[in-house]
Amino acid sequence: DGVTEVLAHRSDNLRDKFIEIPCSEDYDSHRRFAGCTPRKCGRGVTDVVITREEAERIRRIAERGLSLGGSDGGASILDLHSGALSLGKHFVNLYRYFGDKIQEIFTEEDFALYRDVRQRIQQRIAQVFGISSSAMYLTKPTFFSRMNSTGAKTTHDEYWHPHVDKVTYGSFDYTSLLYLSDYSKDFGGGRFVFMDADSNKTVEPRAGRVSFFTSGSENLHRVEKVQWGTRFAITISFTCDPEHGIGDPPPG
């Protein structure tokens, strides 16, 4: 894998760490939105936007939702916006599948906390990149992930391949990850890796840590395979294109 540099150790308590890098040309093939489309690109890590206690509460939301399903392979997702939930080798719509029982699984407080956390992350990204928070829209997919060392059963379980979010999803302009468990305490492996030409730069997850970055090829990345334990995170993605915006959960 070449040289690896750790951008953020689990033991660090980072106020704000930001590294600016030149933007790729990926944004040129999409419509530009003034005051939002990245002109300054890079990646940041902060441990002060979300508390550990809030991260634990968010993780419990993920655990409750994922306990209703789960992939046969090592990667399960729960998307509270669309209702997508891993179940065996497929996905079901949580809201259709469980109907009114959803109120027994998630409370109003759960959704309020989720919304609040999303807004704080959005504001921090806007501040760091010098754009207007109101010009950014939540976009899909925005989802919880639970990863363990079980072998992959379908391509959906193969989370470790290098990829570029803007290329994969098109609508993404800014990507963020909120970690809900601790590297080397709750799980082994599973670090987040930015793959630069000269070396790899890793982020070690820690509950409450937010890692965020512009979504183009300047931030090619992957996640290491989880070796043991369980890794929880939530991916929260933003677009500058209002047509690709989605609302906060629950839908409708």
From TrEMBL:
PANTHER family: 2-OXOGLUTARATE AND IRON-DEPENDENT OXYGENASE DOMAIN-CONTAINING PROTEIN 3 (PTHR14650:SF1), PROLYL HYDROXYLASE-RELATED (PTHR14650). Keywords: Dioxygenase, Iron, Metal-binding, Oxidoreductase. Residues 140-242 form the Fe2OG dioxygenase domain. It holds the Pfam family 2OG-FeII_Oxy_3. Its cofactor is L-ascorbate. It comes from Tichodroma muraria. This is OGFD3 protein. The gene is Ogfod3. One of its GO terms (cellular component) is membrane. SMART domains: P4Hc. One of its GO terms (molecular function) is L-ascorbic acid binding. The keyword Cell inner membrane does not apply.
